[in-house]
Specification:
By secondary structure, the chain is α/β, with parallel strands linked by helices. It has 6 helices and 7 strands; from the N terminus they run E-H-E-H-E-E-E-H-E-H-E-H-H. Strand 4 and strand 5 form a beta hairpin. The radius of gyration is 14 Å and the shape is globular.
């Protein structure tokens, strides 16, 4: 499913490092430092990703994404008094080749319509923050690249269907 220059391993433990220019550049946006640290560790251990920045506020996220133009933004929805969905249209406008992936403790059933309407490409519940997260992010980014290339890509609400 990944582009021609990347291969998708069956499990994150099988990932071969692609650090450098082929690594997927990621910005992590979450107001909780322990969550940012966990996400960074999961992605760093995988080897297919380079976490280029972290942001604890929406304002910092907007500045960082505009400056970094990452491949992926992992965006929390509940950011103190801010709601991440409010930032999505600006993120998409300022970094149109960046995939906005919402990663939230809130139920996808309750929030998915709002975040997709705002321009997010995917929604994952934080319950997936385990070893499979890097595979899911990589598979979703591959689908995003297909969409950027003009291919029709259908939304998938169940990430496990992407990996099968």
């Amino acid at each position: 499913m990944l582009g021609a220059d990347r291969s998708q391993p069956e499990q994150s433990g099988d990932a071969s490092p692609v650090d450098g220019p082929d690594a997927l550049r990621v910005v992590i946006v979450d107001d909780e430092a322990p969550i940012r640290k966990l996400l960074r560790a999961l992605l760093d251990l995988d080897g297919r990703f380079e976490v280029v920045a972290e942001a604890a506020t929406i304002h910092h996220a907007l500045e960082t994404v505009a400056d970094e133009q990452p491949d992926v933004v992992l965006l929390d929805l509940l950011m103190g008094r801010e709601h991440g969905a409010e930032a999505i249209p600006r993120l998409v406008l300022d970094a149109p080749r960046t995939m906005v992936l919402v990663l939230s403790a809130l139920s996808a059933e309750d929030q998915a319509d709002r975040v997709f309407a705002a321009g997010a490409f995917a929604y994952l519940e934080k319950s997936v923050m385990g070893r499979q997260l890097p595979d899911e992010v990589a598979a979703l980014r591959a689908r995003f690249e297909q969409a950027l290339a003009g291919e029709t890509v259908w939304a998938v609400r169940d990430p496990a269907r992407i990996l099968s």
